[in-house]
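User: Could you go from structure to sequence for me? I need the amino acid at each position, not a summary. Structure tokens:
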């Protein structure tokens, strides 16, 4: 560890003129002071002023071989939690310019990242990565409720230009499977009905995919699905082989267990969570999960505190759900995550089960009205939120 500015940077960004051609607001977002202040860590990695958090984790030496199977899971967690404090201190020092790391120095044989990988692999033997806690022995090939076993299923990866302006072009990787059963899922062909159209990738290949996306101009690596949570073991391992300084983005329903959060929270540079429902009943009826609100709230707070504010929170406004979902979600966010940027989304349309059983899901069997979306925006504005309005390609402050 040393001070210095010899950061590894292999990114070759897309020419600005090209980004400008697709999304003028993506270019503007680079120079927007408010976004740069709210997403300061993300921007510092994007501009190669700071190393992504996974690279910091690879500089912290583990005091043992975490892959040694004679070490219990409890002992591994003890080591993890000690190293987490070290990682936090080093990250804060780097963030405040008190320290830096040299990327040309050799890494320790076993690192904090290795400890995370070893723990994630152990958890796969009785999986409890999401709050289903279905305990599937995925390590031996059993499929969990999320429909994922011991293969990392990638359906597609590309430069996504439809994400929020600060993220575009976003190096997006779509994984198969999902612990949620959203009746209106627009990605149901990969999340709910896992077909053989995916490619099975090893962690090394997953690292190559990320490196390729980064070298060709992606501003970040956007892990999404379905849902990325079941893929945590493979994603963590891929970061061992990734030698590009690029921000890691978690695009998620945030239904991870506290154990899964501990594994990822200090390697994610920017969060893109989806806060859907303002109560548990809507979560149970429309996504078939328990305790939706308390789990989502807990994980949002955890991510917010860990990242010191680098979050863009999505809320998809559902027809007939302004009072039960939009209002309580926005009120809760304004009290608990006030510095996050909000993307209020108006693009809901009936899909999947809602199309098959419109009578059963009558409340959401139509598109949003303009009046409903205006009401959602009015609520957000009255709470003082910084909003990205994606469709209009502009920001509101
Ligand atoms: S991630 Fe999948 S296998 Fe693991 S607990 Fe959740 S549903 Fe079960």
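Assistant: Here is the amino acid at each position, in order:
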């Amino acid at each position: 560890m040393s001070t210095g500015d010899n950061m590894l940077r292999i990114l070759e960004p897309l020419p600005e003129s090209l980004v400008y051609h697709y999304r003028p607001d993506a270019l503007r977002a680079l120079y927007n002071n408010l976004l740069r202040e709210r997403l300061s860590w993300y921007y510092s990695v994007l501009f190669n002023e700071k190393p992504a958090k996974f690279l910091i984790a690879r500089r912290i030496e583990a005091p043992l071989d975490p892959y040694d199977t004679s070490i219990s899971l409890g002992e591994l967690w003890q080591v993890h939690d000690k190293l987490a404090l070290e990682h936090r201190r080093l990250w804060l020092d780097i963030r405040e310019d008190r320290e830096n790391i040299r990327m040309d120095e050799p890494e320790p044989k076993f690192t904090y990242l290795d400890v995370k990988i070893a723990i994630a692999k152990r958890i796969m033997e009785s999986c409890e990565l999401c709050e289903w806690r279905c305990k599937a022995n995925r390590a031996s090939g059993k499929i969990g409720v999320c429909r994922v076993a011991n293969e990392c299923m990638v359906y597609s990866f590309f430069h996504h230009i439809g994400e929020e302006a600060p993220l575009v072009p976003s190096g997006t990787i779509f994984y198969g499977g999902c612990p949620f059963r959203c009746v209106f899922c627009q990605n149901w062909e990969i999340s709910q009905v896992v077909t053989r159209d995916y490619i099975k990738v090893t962690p090394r290949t997953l690292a190559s995919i990320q490196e390729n996306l980064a070298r060709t101009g992606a501003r970040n690596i956007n892990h999404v699905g379905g849902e990325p949570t079941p893929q945590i073991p493979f994603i963590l391992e891929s970061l061992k082989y990734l030698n590009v300084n690029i921000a890691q983005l978690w695009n998620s329903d945030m239904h991870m267990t506290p154990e899964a959060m501990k594994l990822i929270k200090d390697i994610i540079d920017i969060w893109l969570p989806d806060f859907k429902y303002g109560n548990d009943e809507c979560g149970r009826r429309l996504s078939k999960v328990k305790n939706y609100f308390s789990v989502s709230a807990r994980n949002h707070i955890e991510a917010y505190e860990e990242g010191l504010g680098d979050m863009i929170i999505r809320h998809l406004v559902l027809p007939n759900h302004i009072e039960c979902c939009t209002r309580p979600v926005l009120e809760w966010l304004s009290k608990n995550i006030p510095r996050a940027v909000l993307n209020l989304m108006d693009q809901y349309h009936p899909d999947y089960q809602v199309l098959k059983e419109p009578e059963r899901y009558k409340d959401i069997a139509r598109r949003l009205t303009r009046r409903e979306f205006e009401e959602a925006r009015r609520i957000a504005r009255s709470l003082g939120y910084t909003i990205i309005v994606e469709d209009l390609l502009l920001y509101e402050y």
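One structural detail worth keeping in mind: The two ends are 40 Å apart (CA to CA).
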